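Morning F.,

Quick status update on the modeling queue. The single chain you submitted on Monday has been processed. Sequence for confirmation:
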Amino acid sequence: MTSPALISESGGLFWHAKALLRHRGLWSDFNNRVERFLSDWQAELEFGEGPRPDGLILLGPSGGWCLPTRGLLDSFSDVIAVDPDPAARAIFQRRFRPKTQAAGDTASRPKPTWVSSTFERVLPALLTRHPRHAVLFCNVLGQLRYQDNKTLERTEFELGQIKLMLAGRHWASFHDRISGETASADLHELEFFSAEPVTTQSLAKRVARGGEWLDHLTECVLPQHTPRRFMAWPISRERLHWIEAGWVGRQA
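Structure tokens below.
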């Protein structure tokens, strides 16, 4: 029997092999945009109102292919990564292995604690156990529509409840909004910003030239008044995803 780690569409060795080939080529512009987004979020955590978070909970990081290998994890004293993909742990830990500590240097990147689970199962307990950790959803929320045991309506409802669960805490997310064929995309802009929510219908009207575009049910993930940015992600030469990204402060 073939191991699930080898055949998963959104994880497993086949996925990581594709990601390895694409993340420095086809994905490089998108990865640079995500890195700028996360750098801006880090600045908000560092210089914004209230105490700085003690640590970071990464949800669905996979092998870290969309995350910067420098900067993000270095600024937290404790990092917890949650992902069910059995192939992701070794890849992530290799790509984000702790820095070599120089003599007399007391600052060193912590080794992330890995939790092999879906975030839905463990997030409530982690929030209770780590009340001052920030939370980052790593391009995972748009994949929840593929769950076999839930209706799309139930999935959309649960995605809309995330902001309530995380009220009073620093958190951020970048996630799929819509996806379709690259040939049907309008590529005159690859990134844009909005101070207001953007409906799925208006997003498709802005970035598509026709064709069928899949709704990833994440329209209501971010609170209404959250500034957000939209980034094109050419996941392959044939398929394009539009990613929404935003962060929420403790007072939101």
